[in-house]
Specification:
The chain is of the alpha+beta class. The chain is 37% helix and 21% strand. The structure holds zinc ion.
């Protein structure tokens, strides 16, 4: 995908583009996806022809298209190739409480929580909304929290090349809170540090203290 073109929808993509992005080579049609939801509804013991369920397969497929729209974006493309120079600022830049909405790849149920992210600029800074876009783009896929955390940190590190990146994600997995062991209050915390956040324990502690504020 070309940089700054984040608006492709699944239907717009050619088979070649999907292959290049590592997506499945034989993508089923929308009708096949809707038929699969119809099977699930019948398997649950419901009648898919009743009023309330008649349009459900189409709605579910459209919803999943939105939940997983990150597959059709290049997260790195949200980061500008030219950064703004800063003078007189030499401390970490931190973005707190970024909403995380993702889906667990094991059960296809929501992972909901928040992320705190910081980077140590190397003379140059990036608009903070861009970092949130990177997180969103990786979150809107089937994920594990560990992978999501690592992907965001590595992408920001490799594209922006700051002195270091720190990220903490605190999220609840509905596969654990509403089914299985049913522990409604449990949240999972994952972190990833690169560069100076990895080598400087004081800096790492400052990041964690800021993240814990709320
Ligand atoms: Zn799960």
């Amino acid at each position: 995908m070309t940089p700054n073109d984040n608006s492709l929808t699944p239907a717009d993509m050619t088979q070649a583009e999907r292959q290049r992005d590592g997506l499945t080579t034989l993508r089923p049609t929308r009708a096949e996806a809707e038929a699969a939801i119809d099977v699930l509804i019948r398997w649950l013991g419901e009648d898919p022809s009743r009023e309330g369920l008649r349009d459900t397969p189409a709605r579910v497929v459209r919803a999943w298209e939105e939940f997983c729209s990150g597959y059709y974006e290049d997260p790195a493309a949200f980061l500008p190739s030219v950064l703004e120079e800063v003078e007189g600022y030499d401390d970490m830049v931190m973005l707190r409480q970024i909403r995380i909405e993702s889906h667990c790849e094991h059960h296809l149920v929501p992972i909901l929580g928040s992320a705190h992210i910081a980077y140590m600029p190397d003379r140059r800074v990036v608009g903070i909304s861009k970092l949130a876009r990177v997180i969103d783009s990786f979150a809107r896929r089937l994920q594990t929290q560990e992978t999501l955390t690592a992907q965001v940190a590595e992408t920001i590190q490799s594209v922006l090349e700051p002195q270091g990146v720190a990220i903490l994600i605190d999220a609840q997995h509905q596969c654990m809170t509403t089914r299985g062991v049913r522990k409604p209050d449990v949240s999972m915390v994952t972190t990833r540090f690169t560069g100076v956040f990895q080598t400087d324990t004081n800096l790492q502690r400052r990041f964690l203290e800021q993240a814990r504020l709320g």
